[in-house]
Amino acid sequence: MLTPRGRSMSRRHRPFHPDHDDSEIESRSTVISRKSDAYQAALGWLVDRIDYEKLASSGSRYRFTLDRMRDLIQRLGHGQHLTVDSTELGQSPPSSVNQSSVVESARPDSIVQPSKSTGVQIVHLAGTKGKGSAATMVAALLHAAGYRVGLYTSPHLVNLEERFRVDGEIATPEEMIGLIDSMRPIVEAMTAAPIGGPSFFELTTAMAIEHFHRRQCDIWVLETGLGGRLDSTNVFQSHATAITSIGLDHQHVLGDTAELIAAEKAGIFKRDTPAINGVPAGPVRDVIVRIADQIGAPLMHLGDEIQITPNTESQKCWGSSFQISGLGDWMPGDTVVDLKLEGAHQVRNAAIALALVDALPDVTRKLRPEQCIHQCLSSLQMEARLERFDLPDDRVVLLDTAHNADSIEAMLTVLNQRMAGRRRFCLFGTSADKNVLAMLQRMQPHFDQWTLTRYEGNPRFVPVDDLNRTALQAGLSPNRITSFEHPIAAVQNAVNSLNTGDVLVICGSFFLAAEIRPWLVQCCGSSSVSTTSSSSTDGSSSG
Q1: CA distance to 503, 512, 524, 527, per residue, from 392 (Å)
Q2: Average pLDDT, stretch 505-511?
Q3: By C-alpha distance, which of 402, 399, 400 is closest to 390?
Q4: Does 101 have pLDDT greater than 50?
Q5: How far is CA 386 from CA 3, 59, 173, 413, 527, in A?
Q6: What is the dihedral of CA 322, 326, 327, 328, to 10 degrees?
């Protein structure tokens, strides 16, 4: 039975910080730094495994399969956490199947069987947007309840070790070297075998599990990387699952309709394992419901069994407040939940996180209302999720990773609610696999001036000249567009262009946010995320 650790009060109730603090890292790792040859060599070996982007750029399709991941976890010695071997519910890429077969991948004769209990509980999240935020909230709530919690998310913003967190603390350089070294002989053996060597994401997923094992975590919170059914995180026996949202993204891999994408993401459901659904009623939810029924996963819906009521009495100038009903006695329906995170989409993410905690009976039967674990959410903030920088003269910079239609819509909703009446600037750069025209068309009416740029650390960027042409197609006025090849020059110019009361939104890509954020922290300060947790720039942004 899962029991909170008997740690001292200072350890047990230590604040959960999802944004890493390099001074904290140095106190835990005094021998190795990110600039050391040992760290750079280890990281270089791992980054060499990034092959999916190369294959995608050449027009071929990487063979998504769970065979390699299962073999990798077995070789690491963690096979007890795997689901009983499944047929992988069919191997065909979702875009190659007919709409009528959208739920065939979950047919009852190939349902994944649960494995025996291992003492570790696993929470698994999928979704087009919101899954990273919700996963971070789940981890923070469970940490506040007294458990040691491992959190695996992707992509990272600046440094790879951001993907591997225990109680909010990222892995140290020494830990990273140890984890990578443990993978080397296994990769060599798999590469020489018919099954073939693992991919970069398979390796980082395995590293997360090994890290959580070494740190003796009670609970693992895993965010899918892409899709769900054939995602590397889907080989483990979960104890609670969730789909935060469904939208059109990564269609070249997941399918070209929302229904096909929903079928892929619902592939994380397991028999007799509680599942939370954040998708509203309609054809897309119907797909999720059918798959849950066929698999035998008990499903609860946000908006039905779980109700959210906005707190209209809140006077917060930034952040959110709501009440939630439909959970256990540990969370009375009249409880007010305050978030430091802004936006109705974050309220929904928080509700999903609370519902996932509620779905873990070994946890909730020990919780009492007076513990108020929800209060940890009032101080929880994440880098580049509508991260606010306040400048003199009431100028505001908002840094956001919005990079698809749904996340752009969520950003615009906040902008229109919180920044009405202000002159608005947008700094935009994005990736070649995104629907650039649709994003710019949606944003065009909401901004007065534009700065177009690209990121530099990954070859997937849209060239600035191409971005300019697409912007004109989207209806942007040429005399309102400024272009820069270098993102730091772009943000310097954009910030210097702000007058009293103006707001600048920076969005379009994780990669862009990663390259711009250190400059914002250094030159603008006053972030809604503590500046002591700012990102270092001496790592590799490869995710």
Answers
A1: 12, 24, 9, 13
A2: 96
A3: 399
A4: no
A5: 36, 34, 28, 11, 10
A6: 130
